[in-house]
Batch of 3 targets.
Target 1
Amino acid sequence: MIQCPNCGGNLVFDISSQQMMCDHCQTQFDPYTIEKAEDAEKDEFETNIFTCPQCGGEIYSTDNSAANFCSYCGASTILTQRLSKEKRPGYIIPFKITKEACKNAYQKRMKKAIFAPGELKDPKYIDSFRGIYMPFWSYSVDMDSDISIPAHNTSREGDYDVTTNYLITGHASSKYKGISHDASSTFDDNISESISPYDVKNMQVFSPSFLSGFYADTSDVDPHTYIDNAKEVAGIEDSYYYSSSVTMNDLVPDIPLANYFKQRNQVVGADSTMFPVWFMSYRKKDRVAYATINGQTGKIACDTPVEPKKYILGSLLIALPIFLLLNAFATLIPKTLLSLVAIIAMAINILFSYQISLIAKKESTNAISPNNDVKIGDEKVAVDASKDYSWILYLVMILFYSIPMVCAFIPSLTTNLASNAKIIGLGSTLIALVATLIGSTISSKKISKLKFKKGLNPGIFSIIALGVAFLVMLIQPAFDLFYYFSVLLILVASLYSLIKLIEYYNILATRPLPQMSMYKGGDDRA
């Protein structure tokens, strides 16, 4: 705790005024005047380390008030506390976005998430946003080199294409400061990238005073880890500049400029910095969802799971008026109805297979996942975990109801379907059966490589239901009851597929519970 010189009360950093403010007498102080002169010259500062007993996640603060929940795994527990010496960062970007503004931005985002669990919109839950300074390495990259770039220019002369070769020579010079990468193995790279960039021009010299009232994550990634990335970013910027310059305007380089300049760039410095993040976690059994907001710009990224009950209820509310419209404008014969539900079942299972592919890619590259050893062959594809995949669920709803709607309002189409019901029925059920069989085989292989499983592959039930439907279409029984039974069988299988689609979507939209102790001191991309 930093004491007020006037009354001895607790001083905290006030975002609105960018000053230290006493929570008792409301007196304001400059953050740099509070720190003792002798402390400012030291390479270390004294702080309280809070460690989660469940996941091993660590945060620290100059305050000594006990933390009662873990920001990373969402556990409601008293974090163990110890006094420690931490290496002083070089720079810091103080919080600019207040907690109230942060909560408003999050609530605005959640208004669009109509299927999100109610807890995510609970004011008491939203109040659990915690201000955490995340460690970053800020690189300075310079280039001062003679260049020699082969290039060519092609022109048309009569019936010939004439190519002229050139050699562009000269001297290139550039300087970049503030190319940043997060320095914490507990902070997923996908999260840090999704709320970037930060305006590094507003970095200030670090003082422990800025931490009062906030927390900070520990830095455990070596600065050499991102040197190659920093040179690559600078090389891309160099290529943009030189390719649009007057010298290069009419010439096409024979080599990739970004790689050429990357090889000539040199990292001349790596400053330890701290960037502000508003952080909140939502835990559901063995999964956790994060909401993060850039504490300087207000840019937001959220993992948004779906509440199955809300989604099913929403589907029913849409189904009711469509059912009434269908009865008012058209009547589908049993064979046509069976064809339509077969196509819908096929579409749902194809989407399910696609969903499993996304999950497999995400889980194989999750930076803080205990399932880090789960891979799909040798493939490692980065998937933005904070990306919103809810369009998949909306697409399912459209597929459920759009085809009957089209038939209802285009009577000629309904008539044509009825007159060719046998041919269409056999073709549609066979296509649906084969496509579902292929999709289920692919998804089953991917599911078998994952450590988590959520019951049987729904494609199995859809294959059985579609197989029965195909036999009914082939035999052509005289009683409509057989067709309606097949429709009911497919709808039940589709409903099960829909429920499983939501369950697996929630896996895609959330993350495994972290085990921070496994990654401390390591490269979070390893």
Note: Confidence is low (pLDDT under 50) at residues 366-388, 404-415, 518-526.
Target 2
Amino acid sequence: MSQLSAGTTDPALPGGLLADAWSISASRSGLEALLAGGFPGLVVRPLGDAVWLSVGDPALAGLAAQARKERGTAWPQPLVSHYARYFRDGNRTDYEGLVATRQQRLTRAVVMALLAGRHADVDVGAGAVADAGALAVAPGDASNDATGWLDEVIDGVHLLCEQSSWSWAAHDDVFTRTGGVVPDKSLPYLDLGAGEVAAQLAWTDYVLGDALDDRAPGLRRRIRQETTERAITPFLERLDWHWLGLEGDVHNWNPWIHTNLVAAALFLLDDPRLQAATVARCIEGLDRFLASIPADGAIDEGFAYWWNGAGRALEGLALLEQATGGALDADLPVVRQLAAFPHRMHLGGNWFLNVADGPARAANGLPWDMLHRWAVRLGDRDAARHAAAFVSGQPDATAGLGRVLHALLDGARLDQVRTDPDPALLNGVPLDQASENGIQTPPLVPFTYLPSVQIMVAREAAGTQQGLVLAAKGGHNGEHHNHRDVGSVVVAVDGVPLLVDAGQPTYTAKTFGPDRYDIRAMQSAWHSVPAPFGLEQGTGKAFAADVLRTPSPEDPTLQLALGAAYGLHPEQWVRTSSLDREARQIVVADRWNLATSPGNLVKANADPLPRATPDVDITYLAAGTVRLGLDGSATVERAGIPAAGIPPVGTTSAGTRATATQLAGDGRGLMLRWEPAAAVVLVDEWHLDDPLLAGVWGEKLTRLRFRLPEGPSAAGTFTLTVEATS
């Protein structure tokens, strides 16, 4: 194991974007000087600062209602039996769910302690998950006194300090190192969970400060002790953490953990040299992440993981800039591209193109305010419009304490933007021109192509979700959180995907183990891709698509050679996916030449390909309700898809969420036609018992497998035409 203490010299590390931009300022000596004067530039301010008077009642309503319901009840208690389940039967949600619930309760308690006494009562805001009785507070009511909420906070903080492991059981190496299924505090594992706890304690200590020790003397010392032992020391003393990216594989853990450690170092390390050394190491890690991002800003893990990868990096960069009084300026070309990625993946409503382990619907609690601040800072009008349309105005504790604190303060800024747009505040981004009937709307850009991941998203008409959207993907099967989806297509109508990617099921031990591709959602057999000889796609970078025709805004056509994804010669299978805006239709055309028999096909490692059959299938996965016609046609209707996923999102000029009634679409579906019309259609229903998948798609997904009627053929073509129903 490599060791490095704060007082030794760093090993030689390659330079990067931040190293070039910041130079000596990002060194230990430079940081020690920059951080010496405290953090007056931070947006989030400590207890008692007048900035908290700007927090509007609607923004606090949901958090306050839940906080008052749970105060005085027993805290969630993750037990050894919950922890051990991962090692016994692969279940990771029992333990992680209790840990998350505990931390969310602490987040709400911190907010209440911070804002206690600000008002005599809190009104119910539009869309708040509460009733008026839960929020009504009489003058002098104990539920609104600061000391009571501080007691709630110190109980939650102490529970975290006492928790045997801050890491999640699925990541902890206690079993591989000791054979035990009991957390071992003497062997701290620095993972996503540990980073989250360290950051939550850091933000708690920063905003409540001396009030914690006034109420519970010694608590702040305990916070520092536990964070140093469980996070800071392992970070500085070990260079074998896989998420550091030292061996070239950089993924979302890198910015997620490094950004949380930046907060921990800034707020909890009192030794200036140790603080500077820790922040410098975090900058090196973030630099490796940014260096791994392609020029087009694509994230191969997709939209959902953008928030806990690229989004975390943007948060870390903003925190570093604020803490150094602007000396560490992160306005870099790669940052501009990263900020544009979410709106480029937007299908409509709260639906997004989901590749890899991601749901098709945007999660609650995403920090859209963070993206909006960056977009305005960068002058990216489309990114700013998109983020503004999704800002709910009511922070969700699932986002984490740091994100909640920023969101509470950002509400006042966004309200000012909406009611009195100031060019100085907007950096040239005229958001007031991007609304319809008082509803802030996303830009719904007409075309995106990201060559690094071979993803195209093409919309029938710019600026409206009415009409068709085609998303087509090439790439390879060695991507992070990979699904075997090379060549897949997704088709949405009026903002709702109906030819779909199933997305992320509930994580278990199997998800990231050797049997990952036994999970149906990960298999090419359950994506909208071909199956030459009935084959599954292979796993690894060699199983990839070649781009034969690059799309353009005027001609959104992506042509891919897919053969290599199955161990074939690349051009033995060619798929052309195109959107014809004038004809208002999407065409996916497959042609193949499979002269080689399946028995002669081999994988890259020379093992025979499994399950080869004489058949050639072309598969499409549909959500909703599928009805087959008698003439080489079928319809796919929305019926069965949970209603929560259908309405477009938007934010009114008053900052409240628009309702489904205000924004409900016309409910159109898709008409599918195919040639040859005589193709045999095999229908398989996937009844969804996984809560994550069912929450997005409803009770089932339907797989259509098209097989040519004349039986096996060395060469052939198949064309699917997709139009919106009338």
Note: Residues 305 and 713 are 41 Å apart (CA to CA).
Target 3
Amino acid sequence: MTQPFLPSDTNYHHGMIGNGRTCALVDTDGSIVFACMPDFDSGTVFASLLDKEKGGFFGLELVGGNTVSQEYERHTNVLVTRYEAADGSAMEVVDFMPRYTWDGKAGSREDAASDIVRVVYPLSGSPKLRVHYDPKLEYARFETTTFPVNDCIKSTSRGVLSCGHKVYESLHLHTDLPHQDVIDGTEIALTPGEPRFFLVTYHDKVQVPDQDLVNLMLQRTRAYWLLWTARTHRTKRYTEEVLRSALALKMLQFNPTGALLAAATTSLPETIGENRNWDYRFCWIRDGSMTVSTLRRIGHETMAVRFIDWMLKTVPTKDDHLQIMYGLRGEKLLHEEILDHLSGYLGSAPVRIGNAAYHQEQHDIYGVLLDVIYQDVETRVRTPESLDRIWTRVRSVVRTVADRWTEPDRGIWEIRGDTRHFVFSKVLCWVAVDRAIKIARLLNKDAWAEEHEALRDEIHAEICKRGWNEEVGAFTQSYGVVDLDSSNLLLAEFGFLDGKDPRFVSTVRKTQEQLCRDGLLYRYRNHDDFGEPNSAFTVCSFWMVKALAAIGARDEGRKMFEQLLAYANPKGLYGEDLDFATRRHLGNFPQAYSHLALIDCALLLGEDEDDELIRA
């Protein structure tokens, strides 16, 4: 009996295609194994990554052949997979999501479609194609039916949720191949030199696509990415790594609002077989400082401004509660739900949608928000009216900090157990007041600034007294413990201590000694709600690179950084975590924070004499 075709598990060797509306992950065998439509945070239409049997996928098979290579077209997000067979047959599949300005003019507004385009190019021999088109809509909650209709192939799914809400979803596939053969998975003979296409779309198309239109989409999308990349600043030594990370970030910024996703996926585990599985298709305020700073440094001011404007529009004023994270359109309620019918990545259940951490008390967000506002006020010309609104927000946040900084919280790692006095949370409270004072002086509010210097100094003094552990020789994770935490590697980054301060130097070295394993870092090693962490948190390793540079160990930092570059997946992408032993990627993928940190380190090390910043 012939074994059914199923997408392979290639240890996160996927490529990602996307256009700022949504994205898709393509496995090395050319199968689309994860995609949500119409938006990043919508229900999945393909999710075999989360359940190989039930999740649904879209595979293209060269009968009798295999994939031999897969890579991005240089400096684009167009992915090319090559297939070859023993009889000399060969074909290429070009995958992309259309992205370009509607009128073809630079600077015009984009309106990206929720479309996945796959173009098959028969190259040689007598290639035979078998299509494995198996969409499972709305997280495969209900049965999906696929059938030919008029000028396309349509898939529908309907059902009733436990809350009583009725669900109906549909998906359309346009192709110039026989529709029933596509549905049935029949062998289809291809002719070299005659390309064929597939266009998966959430919306019923008004303009029915044909080969000419698809080719135009491809050429315009290529041009878009090449022009965007050409405007990106990068370092001479790390050009390709910076550009690939920048391209990934551009895909992860939700174009309708400017919000930046933490990652493209949900429920990919931090450790195989464990239940540290979360939905990262939302925007965390804490990522803001690095996001804005990094985007500006690589020359994409518009991306930074759109993110800032989203933040300022989304975060509350005065006495409304500030959350740690929001939906891509500013949604506040991110109800967490477990999908019991899906088995999870390699059996790592549960599969979650939504994220219950949205209502946690995490005091680091105050400092991040005001650091972003400070960067904006310092560099951007604003109207007096907009500055009035900003100043109201600044004073509101500082009032909240004054009331809450002495209280425990959940910390940057979103601990779901007991609250504690996390050192990094206290430091970011100090950042909030420090940046507010700087903003006040920029706005000529000197009396207010002087009035709040005492609060800033009080927070700093307490952290130095209670957060520093003389016996350990480091700032610890929380008051009164001996456990270390990688977040404290950012104390110099945020200006709490000078990089050459003996306490910071000692904290870096002690963190390296206790949390570093074979060149990778734990977030922390003490037990949390789910036991002891077993994987390296990728961004923490990049933080160590920056911390080493800050204390004067620049060569050591560069060596570590270049080792981290070697751990990228074959497409240059990074997940949230890395396995210490195998270096395989784990956690949600690709993670924006990892790519932001990579660019940040590359630009920092690019300041050395043997490198240089290339400005577009």
Note: The chain has a mean pLDDT of 93.
